Amino acid sequence: MGEMEQLRKEAESLKDQITAARKAVADATLPDTVSSTAVVGRVQLKTRKTLRGHLAKIYAMHWATDAKLCVSASQDGKLIVWDTLTTNKVNAIPLKSSWVMTCAYAPSGNMVACGGLDNMCSIYNLKGKDGNVKVMRELAAHTGYLSCCRFLSDSEIITSSGDCTCLLWDIETGTQKTTFAGHLGDCMSLAVPGDFKTFVSGACDFTAKLWDIRDSNCTHTFSGHESDVNAIAFFPNGNAVITGSDDATCKLFDLRSDQELITYQDSSIMCGVTSIAPSLSGRLILAGYDDFNVNIWDSLKAERVGVLAGHDNRVSCIGVSTDGMACCTGSWDSFLPSFSFKGQDNVMRLCKQNKQQYL
Amino acid sequence: MPCLSKVIPSIPHENTSSNFIKWLTRLSGQMERVVVSMQDPDMGVKLRNQRLLITVIPHAMTGNDIVEWLMQKFSVCDEEALHVGNLLVKFGYIYPLKEPRVLTLRPDETPYRFQTPYYWTSTRWPASELDYAIYLAKKNIRKQGELIEHEKESYNMLHKRINHTWDFVVMQAREQLRASKQRRKADRIVLECQEQAYWLVNRPPVSPCTCRWDRTRMTFLAYFMCYLHITLISTHSGFVKYCEQYQPHDPIMQGCLPSNPWITDDAMYWTINSDSVAVPTKLRVERWSFSFVELLSDPMGQRELMAYLEKEFSAENLCFWQACEDLRHGENSKIPSKVDEIYKQFLAPGATRWVNIDSKTMEKTLQGIKQPHRFVLDDAQMHIYFLMKKDSYPRYLRSELYKNLLARAVVPQETKKRYRSSWWNMAFHRRRRCRRSLSRPTSPGTRLLGWRCRARQVPGRSRVLYDVRHCLQAKSRRFLRTPPRRPHRHHACPPPSSSVGTQRSHTLYTGPSPSPWKVTGNE
Asked: What is the chain A residue with the closest CA to B509?
């Protein structure tokens, strides 16, 4: 038995040494390869539009593929489709259950989906025959709340839930096709890459998993976070995944070498990340935090290059449009932000309307 | 990255030592297979004689040859081939002739040789201490002072540890030296190079440890760290390259032409980049040359590629690919009929647009078609995709059609923000079109400058709300402030906390309350 104990101790210490080796090599190689790239300089984004109309906390938003429309969900029981350039509301869809936590826009632009504490994913057809927006399907099979949903096409949707599983649904028949089980904690978010063959999910078991849709198995598990993974997104080249967690860090995981490459953290940030989105080239990563700010990170040099401070409450969702032109943030605001005049780019804010200001 | 993963198995998820030993064994096995095929007399790397000082060493190859062979064999780019080649050198399957201590693959005329299987890592791992002692003793006897620092340390340490067999070590060393003197000079040099290379890989300069398990573990960790180092460099440089390539296309980093619609409220950017425009922009056409995926994801790119392929009489490939995409993303109920149609048009013997798929994939696909499902044509689609990527895509990029399009492509003029006259025009048109939903109470300020907005009920349709006040307020604010700076200039700015303060003080409108146009009593 003494030998077994010793072997086990050896194995443990080898494991620690391997982790230390990984970190040492990562820390050593990154500065070298990145030293020749140009410095980004301070990035200042400016509010261009404020989308007002929600009456309660905004929980989620998602851009359409045409980069002009976006959908947002709020706990006042409304799903609003905005024409962001004119700030008009194209559709205001009343929901059966007001406890909505996520929303998604189909790539074709024909449908939107939402779900939340009702454990169901409701799909609405925006291009109905008589112009009314009606519920097309209600997908009910989860035993926990719906934390995120994403369309693969007009006939398939993936949902992640608080019952620790993700499901692939066939929208036509309204039935589930595949179950992706493997997480040990609530699945909090998911992201789908451009080729729609795989997807990643982040969960409260501090890991992120990469799943193959066709084989319905988990091909990679990325650990390294010390707390719940709240937000996840694919790097634009499809070879890496960025995650944001309650431990106040964001991490970049590479899919090919199956390891964590970079951690985006700062000692002055102590609150969790709620949402994350990369810019079109991947050079900038925008992350929304619980301290009401959005930090902009230089993805290669792991430095903070900008802050968007204008929300008066937690930033709950962030999205960069498909052509990279604008970024939209949604928050639990109760006040209207004032416009700012510096900088050169685009931010839109979704905020709760404050009736008092009209008096 | 399908090809590189054929050579390098991914690191196991669970960090147990047995898993890592297994991984290392698998990795060595893969590398050995590669090396064996590299040494194939017909299909392997070109070998030639290499002059080293005054001796001629046979069967040597240049770094360039190795990289090119790997690129061709695995259909990867030169970076990935260099990565694999570097692994082969670091793990001791190939060794450099001129500078034996520098274990990297240089893609130039530097000569390399294959390590003999006797000295492969897998056959003799972990390297025995006795052998190392004999090697060091040989070196010491052959020429005093030839041992370098860490070798001297190891020599002394081994002398202490295996003192009981030291006579045997010295005897063996002498015997081996005598035997080697009887060989031809070229052979002797080759054997010495091989042995030296083996020990450079297996006894890298780490500080000698007391425990044998520690020694093994340190060697393993050294291998692992090299593997990581090489992988990380290649991954990092991949990211840097991607970011740099896409930077001109990233509006947040570099602005966009003619202008950012969010800043100038001018939607011309979207108009000139729409799917059915006659002349595309230069940036858009350049983007198609980044990767095949970019070309296929732009509907205009697909049309251009189709036009090119039709000229080359190989358009059926793209049609087949498009049909497969439609199958994968389409409705479930239509799958059997779609599969049937694809079979009749593309796969059946004697079909009008028969696609050229290899026999194995064809057999598998035809078998799978009997029970059609969404992914049944995946293998065939992948085959055609890679065929187009390797063959048609590079030819299209070199073709006259593409070059002409690139020459004709426009670089739009930057438009400045529109000021007063156009603001009035827009406000005027907005007023004429404004509607208001009856169910929502009128907020003050929607009546502006004394104009009334006519409410029109639109029954049975979704509500469309036009918030004129916001539009006009935003417009007037833009009119009154200074022109914006050009997007590409980055300048130092005050830290966020202070800037928020100053921004608020610069605001001209803090909200609708002090508006002179407010109509009282409405909300």
From this structure: A338
